[in-house]
Amino acid sequence: MTKMTMVGALNAALRDAMVEDPRVVVFGEDVGPLGGVFRVTDGLTAEFGEDRCFDTPLAESGIVGMAIGMAMNGMRPVVEMQFDAFAYPAFEQVASHLAKIGNRTHGKVRLPVVVRIPYGGGIGGVEHHCDSSEAYYAHTPGLTVVTPATNEDAYGLLRAAIAGSDPVIFFEPKKQYFTKEEVDVTADVPPIGRAVVRREGTDATLIAYGPAVPVALAAAEQAQREGRSLAVVDVRSIVPFDDATVTAAVRATGRAVVVAEAQGFASVASEIVARVTEQCFHHLAAPVRRVTGFDIPFPPPKLERHHLPSVNRILDTVDELQWDES
Amino acid sequence: MTKMTMVGALNAALRDAMVEDPRVVVFGEDVGPLGGVFRVTDGLTAEFGEDRCFDTPLAESGIVGMAIGMAMNGMRPVVEMQFDAFAYPAFEQVASHLAKIGNRTHGKVRLPVVVRIPYGGGIGGVEHHCDSSEAYYAHTPGLTVVTPATNEDAYGLLRAAIAGSDPVIFFEPKKQYFTKEEVDVTADVPPIGRAVVRREGTDATLIAYGPAVPVALAAAEQAQREGRSLAVVDVRSIVPFDDATVTAAVRATGRAVVVAEAQGFASVASEIVARVTEQCFHHLAAPVRRVTGFDIPFPPPKLERHHLPSVNRILDTVDELQWDES
Amino acid sequence: MSSSLESVLDTVRLIDPDGSPVPPDRYPSDRYAIPADADLVARYRSMVLGRRINDQASALTRQGRLAVYPSSHGQEACQVAAAAALRPGDWLFPTYRDTVAVMERGVDPVEILTWLKGDRHCAYDPLEHHVAPQTTPLATQLLHAVGVAHAGRLQGQDVVAMALCGDGATSEGDFHEALNFAAVFRAPVVFLVQNNKYAISVPLSRQTAAPSLAHKGVGYGVPAVLVDGNDVAALDAVLREAVAHAAAGGRPVLVEADTYRVQAHTNADDPTRYRTEAEVEEWRPRDPIARLRTYLRARGALDDAQEATITAEAEALAATVRDGVSHGPAPDPDDLFEHVFSAMTPQLRAQRDLLREELVAEGADR
Amino acid sequence: MSSSLESVLDTVRLIDPDGSPVPPDRYPSDRYAIPADADLVARYRSMVLGRRINDQASALTRQGRLAVYPSSHGQEACQVAAAAALRPGDWLFPTYRDTVAVMERGVDPVEILTWLKGDRHCAYDPLEHHVAPQTTPLATQLLHAVGVAHAGRLQGQDVVAMALCGDGATSEGDFHEALNFAAVFRAPVVFLVQNNKYAISVPLSRQTAAPSLAHKGVGYGVPAVLVDGNDVAALDAVLREAVAHAAAGGRPVLVEADTYRVQAHTNADDPTRYRTEAEVEEWRPRDPIARLRTYLRARGALDDAQEATITAEAEALAATVRDGVSHGPAPDPDDLFEHVFSAMTPQLRAQRDLLREELVAEGADR
Ligand SMILES: Cc1ncc(C[n+]2csc(CCOP(=O)(O)OP(=O)(O)O)c2C)c(N)n1
Ligand SMILES: Cc1ncc(C[n+]2csc(CCOP(=O)(O)OP(=O)(O)O)c2C)c(N)n1
Ligand SMILES: [Mg+2]
Ligand SMILES: [Mg+2]
Q1: Which residues of D touch A312 (CB under 8 A)?
Q2: Same domain flag for D240 and D346
Q3: Residue D341, by phi and psi: left (phi above 0), alpha (psi -120 to 50) or beta?
Q4: Which ligand 2 atom is at minimum distance from the Cα of D170?
Q5: Same domain, C69 and C159
Q6: Total structural domains in chain D?
Q7: What is the pLDDT of residues D251-289, one digit of tens each?
Q8: Closest-CA residue of chain A to B293
Q9: How far lies D138's CA from each of A176, A210, B108, in Å?
């Protein structure tokens, strides 16, 4: 066990993967000598050389398109999109090719490409630097979409993503980048597709992922003090989705709130509400509710706290789960 | 009342808007002398000249980006994306600018741009020609997203979209392009944001939009013969969503199925299930179910019938709505 | 092989449209020499076969056996030369229009046409043939070619990628990014633009205000060559040189082939709406097959017997294609779910099972 | 004004780095003449004010008053000349780095900096000033500039759009599409690339393999000019000519300004990781302000009294900015919902009401 930041955990995962497998290459904007604007790729060019970790021209479609070709020719590219909104220029390459070439070729061409996207708010960033864009990718068949909420998962899930055969969109909650936590890099790599119960509880279940997990845990902590016991499930893998873990947790409490930073309309949170309700309907004492970002463009820094799911908003929503059989 | 195809209705809407308002300009790929690959812009260059309806270089980001600038300078561009998947290169311009400049400038710069996207399957098209991509746009705050299911709505909603002040993503169900229906072009333009009950029913409510509406209606017709009375709501306007009409219809029957062609995960259908459940929970006898496309890339022509929502699949799902209090 | 290929923005032509050889002192560069007769006879054969497949496939659309066919009728010189210039391990990145190039690379034409028959998206094995799936989203495949070439360089392979696109596709952002990435990373890619003057209905004048598409090479530091796209001898010389240059120096080359789409964009298109028959007529005498035939016959390199053999081969091939496209098993509905991920997700398994049940019930109903 | 502007791929420079005038027979084109002293004094003043604002804003980030500031310190010649070249109705399309250009267009610096203060995304009125919001997604604004210019042409306006971007942004697909659309539609746009040699940490050699970025004009049929980006006299001459050319012929021009980012990308950046101090030192003697000062002083066009006035003005402006950025009301939470659509949707109204209730409760709690 070592104490490290999420950036450190991600950096260790890249380094360890590069050591183990010479097919792993890392590229993107500023990932070379600078080590990425968040330093996730720090030291990789120095250690592995220009051919294994390198800067590209400033063009995201180019980055993803080139990664696809490199994967066709046997390599395992891990590319960085500098911020969430700057992945949009690559959207056609992601949606029309990265997600679909495996299917298009009946599995003859698999694309083991990892696209790392720092996402979400909470860092006082200006517009275009704080989007939560996971729904765009989760809605695109053929993409695996994961997001760690702990530093240990950051390490493990990134290792699993790089080791797999399919394209993975890897969302990194950037507001947690510099939080230190214990990380056991020797722990078993968590299989992609498994949610995890982060906290047991008996009254209601909070379902969250990525940057919403610490907020959900804080809410559960606060609820505890107020006499209510909330379970917290960390979804971790948005696609494939772990129905078994999530529905078991919801059935056990009969009440649930989905917490996510992204705007709520047609979102991953909508999906979770829909599938949990489908699968747990007769176990539910109240409709599954959502605490999400508002349906607005990400706000300027001084207003973002109003937009982001907060402990209070979660607890208010839990309060509305018809406790008195209303 | 005149009998016209949906293509004819859309063409009439463009023509009438161009006659009424000299700021309306139409451009895109092949929309000039050819009149569009589906002929929606047929005759417009001949009638209004090259400056009002013109072909662009082959670049979708360019088309949307230029439209944004033209709208900044007082015009009302209506642009065509040739097929659904070919709008993806414009995704950054749509998500980071078209949707957000109004908000960014506190309403100082409004962008009355209409982006027309022929969408959906059922035409035996090859890959990339049949995507249902409405969720990407509906999830993006700042975009109005509408889709007609009838030729009269095609006319009316396009007029409303062009006349409005905000960017509209206008989804045209291409499998209905050449179906003839009565159209009253003198009817009041339907306000954007209103769903419509297409068929009354007492046992369950089908909620559909665009190309799924005729299928839902056919299912209701068939159900009628089998002794079950299904209401059909045509959502029409995905954003803004008409909660009042939809929830009233669901409450009246206590059971509902959402029908949409797009893959279901994190989709507009998920959103409808989530919000209807939130708002109608105690009126529901069974969970709201979805009949959507599978979570797969759009299939090759010979397999698409298995993928698209069918009358049978809708009726099977209605059958599962726990009629015997299971 | 030198890597100091120069841009040649005067059209390289080695055989005139009337079939007579261009005197070498009129070549715009002394790098090029007319290919040997044997090579040209091979190209001739491939072009005749290609033309036959183009026309057969178009006929199959009229019979409803193929949903759609984007023909390269009239562009067979580009098709054949692009594939022939490649060495065994090299890669080809074709578009929807490049059936004949893919065929020339050794892929079975029935497999190639399967996507237009509607059975599956890409029926051949890209890795076996080093031929990417025929790509529809314009210009996107150019970046994949850069990736394959760059990965080749990093892994010490001697591999060149030949990336094809049309004049319209040069307007897409991905064209720009691909040329630029290739130049910056010194990726051995030959970009061949088949400038057939139209993007569906949109004429070249709406795609560019530059004197040629080859001029675009300048902005990337990529040598560019303009070649008569209906002169297979010139294409052969230019593309082989380009492949050699790319292989030797690990540097991209841009080749613009000046050609013409004499038929409709696809069978679904109506070109009378946007161009005159007179314009098309101007191009007919420049047909690549007739031109090469005149040249070879004049040199005595092609005789009646050879021609008869080739024609017979073409007919046999057409029959095979007609037959192959018209028959064959219906695709398996399980295919819908089988290949989305390398391991099927629980969600997809449930969806597959639902469909299976429906199909059983449907069968029972019948 | 003639519209036959030629590409000038030798650097246009009218004043040498040491402040001495370049003899006109060494100009790479005879189109250019050194601006009048009065104009240059005006540019001098603007550059001094711009430099002061750059440095003031950087200081405000250290004090936590601004979240971040991308400074154009060292690029003030480009900033000032770009804005000064425009006529009253013309449009400016700036990036995040172009605070000083926006200021030179008459926008209040406190309003400009509001987005970096975190209150709102863009505080000035783009339509009032004909200045687009400062754009972050790279190269995207170039297409908006084309749209404004094209719409201007269609509506009979005499309007030119000046579109700014950096060297890194030239690699984006939108750069390509914008140049090409402008050329094909003959849209009066002047594209000014401030080539400051870095895109954050990525050096120019990773953006292009061409001899210059101006070479890109060739592929679009757009005249291109390379200019010393630290020589405001040259920039002034070139950009005025470019604007006139665009206005007269309705044709785009590409201008590459050869300059350097002497400071970090933003205050959050650490340039020691990717470049040497020695490299930066090479550029210091080429400072645009010192150069023009030497020139003007030598000509007797700038005296101590004028300098003192300008310095005082700069200090006063800096004080105003410091004050304006440090004070002012907190933004209204209703702003979150108010402007998403021109009419608030029922869904947003409900969300706004929820937030209002929360804030009332929060207030009650305190
Ligand atoms: C990104 C994208 N936009 C639009 C289309 C629709 N489309 C298919 S072919 C075509 C014209 C292409 O012209 P060109 O590149 O010249 O190739 P050609 O068909 O002439 O061989 C268009 C617009 C597409 N396939 N991809
Ligand atoms: C589409 C996009 N990708 C990435 C970024 C992140 N980013 C912000 S500035 C920058 C470097 C830009 O360099 P350049 O264009 O040379 O302009 P400069 O900052 O040097 O003025 C990058 C990569 C962005 N803003 N937009
Ligand atoms: Mg073409
Ligand atoms: Mg720069």
Answers
A1: 358, 362
A2: no
A3: beta
A4: 15
A5: yes
A6: 2
A7: 999 999 999 999 999 999 999 999 999 999 999 999 999
A8: A141
A9: 26, 27, 22
